[in-house]
Amino acid sequence: MGLFTDAYDLFCIPPIMRLIGRIYYSEKDYEVPVGVSSPMVALALLGTVIGKLVFGRLGDLFGRRRVYGLALMLMVVSSVGCGFSICTTQQCVLVSLGFFRFLLGVGIGGDYPLSATIMSEFANKRTRGAFIAAVFSMQGLGILMSSGVTMVVCSIFNAVQHPKDTITPKEADMVWRLILMIGAIPAAMTFYWRMMMPETARYTALVEQNVLQAAKNMEKVLDVSLSQIAEDVEFPPNPPPQYPLLSREFFRRHGRDLFSCAASWFLVDIVFYSTNLVQSLINDKFLPPRKDVNAYEDAFAVAKFQALVAVASTIPGYWATVFFIDRIGRVKIQMMGFLFMGLALFASIAAYLHDKSKISFLILYGLTFFFSNFGPNTTTFIVPAELFPARFRSTCHGISGAFGKVGAIIGSVGFLSISHKNQEDKNSDAKMAGALAFLGGVCMLGMIITYLFTRETMGRSLEENEKEDEDEDETQERCFLRIRRRSNSVREVSLSPI
C-alpha cells in the first residue's frame, strides 16, 4: 500500500498540470510554461533523493518499523497540503504546491528503502524476489488508480457543469485539489497496519542483538505462541567486525555492490523518466486538440491515455518480473530489460521518422515501458535489499535509490526542456532521433555495467550474500535463531540459512 500511494502521488501530476494550465495560463494557450512545469517535477524528485538518504539511514539506526510510520505520516500531511495550496493567485498557488510536493517527495523517498528492506528481511530465499517485486508492482496499480480517480472526478464535475459550454469552469480549481487529497486516503489507512507490524527479526537479532525479542517478533509472523517456540542461539566467539559506513573497509567489502546498484538505478531512471521527451508528440497525435474540449475533458484524455499505457505495458511488465524473478534470476532479467529497452528505443527512431501515423512509434513506446518493468526498473529496487549487511541495508538501498532519482531529474527535466524546444524547431525530428539514440545508448551502458559488476542473489540467503567476499576465518554478523513448531511435523526458521 505504501508503494501504491507513492505511484498515485507521483503520476497524478500530468493531468493536474493540464488543469492548472487551463486555470492559470489562459493567455498562453492553456500551456504551463516549461519554466514552471520543470521545477514542479524536479521538486518532488529532489524530495525523494533527500527522503531516500535520510530515512534509509534512520531505518538502520532506529529500526525499520519506527521510521516506516514516520515516512507515511509525512506523505499523508503533504498530500492534504497539496490540495490546500494557499490562496488562489497563480504565483502563490504554484509556490505552495511546489513546497508540499517537495515534502511529499521526501516521504515517498523514505518509503522505498524501508519497504524493500522490510520485505527482504521477512521473506525466505526461495520466494524473496517475488515478494519484493510484488511490493514494487503495486506502483502499476497506483498509476492506474490515479488515472481512474482523475477520470471519475472529471466526469462527475463535467456532468454537473453549468453552463455546459464553459471551457474552463471555476470549479476546475477544486478538481485538481481534490484529486491530490484523495491520495492521502490509502496512506492514512495503511498507517494502522504499519504500526501493528513487528520489527523484523533480522534487525532485532543482528543489529540490536536481542534474540529473545526477535523470537517474539517471529511469534507474531508465524502465528504461534512463545511457549511453542524453542530457541537455539549461537553467537560467534568474537564480536562481528565493526567498521563504519563509507569507510575504507566498507568499500573493500561492499563498494562494488554499491556502485553496481547505484549506477544501474541511475541509468534506468534517466530512460524511465524521460517520457516527457515524447509527451508533446503523444499529446498532438493521440489526444484531442485542447481548443476543442473543456478543462475536464482535457484532463480526462490525459488520464485515459496514462491508464491505457499502464494496462497494456506497465502492469504486465511488473507481474512478469514477479513470476520469473526467482526462476531466471535478477542479473539476467536486468540485462535482458536493458537490452530490449535499448532495441525498442533504436527501432523507435525509424518509426518516428517514417511512420506519419505514429502508431508503430506508440507500440515501441509501450514496449520500452514493459521491458523497463520486466527488467531494471524492478530489479534495481530488489537487489540493494539483498546484498548488504543488516546494519547497512536500508542505508545502502537509500543511497542507490538517491542516485536513481538524480537520473530521474536529468531524464524528466532535461528532456522536458528538449521536447518543449522541439515544438518550434525546424530540425526537431533530427533532435528527437538523436535523443532517442542517446537513451538507447544509456540502456546498453546499463546492460554492460550489470554484466560486469552486479552479483546474482537468487537462491541465496541475505547472510550468504553479504559474506560473498569475506575470508573463511573472519567472523561475520551472524546469529542462529531456530524457531520450531512442536507438532508431528517440524517447522524451522533460521536467520542464517533462510
Question: How would you characterize the overall build of this protein?
Answer:
It is found in: Membrane. Residues 1-458 form the Major facilitator superfamily (MFS) profile domain. This is Inorganic phosphate transporter 1-9 like. It is a multi-pass membrane protein. The protein has helices at 2-11, 13-24, 34-62, 64-83, 90-122, 128-159, 172-182, 184-196, 201-207, 211-222, 248-272, 276-286, 295-328, 330-354, 359-373, 376-382, 384-387, 393-422, 428-453, 462-466; strands at residues 233-234, 480-484, 492-494. By secondary structure, the protein is an all-alpha fold. Strand 2 (480-484) and strand 3 form a beta hairpin. The radius of gyration is 24 Å and the shape is globular. It starts with a helix and ends with a strand. The model is unreliable at 228-238 and 471-498 (pLDDT under 50).
Estimated helix fraction: over 70%
> Strands of the largest sheet, in order across it?
1-2-3
Radius of gyration: 24 Å
Chain oligomer state = single chain
Task: Report the order of strands and helices.
Answer: HHHHHHHHHHEHHHHHHHHHHEE
Instruction: Please give the count of helices.
Output: 20
Number of domains: 1
- Shape summary: globular
- Which CATH top level class fits? Mainly Alpha
| Full CATH superfamily name | MFS general substrate transporter like domains
Low-confidence stretches: 228-238, 471-498
Distance between the termini: 26 Å
Mind sketching the topology for me?
Blueprint: H1 2-11, H2 13-24, H3 34-62, H4 64-83, H5 90-122, H6 128-159, H7 172-182, H8 184-196, H9 201-207, H10 211-222, E1 233-234, H11 248-272, H12 276-286, H13 295-328, H14 330-354, H15 359-373, H16 376-382, H17 384-387, H18 393-422, H19 428-453, H20 462-466, E2 480-484, E3 492-494
Antiparallel strand pairs: 1-2, 2-3
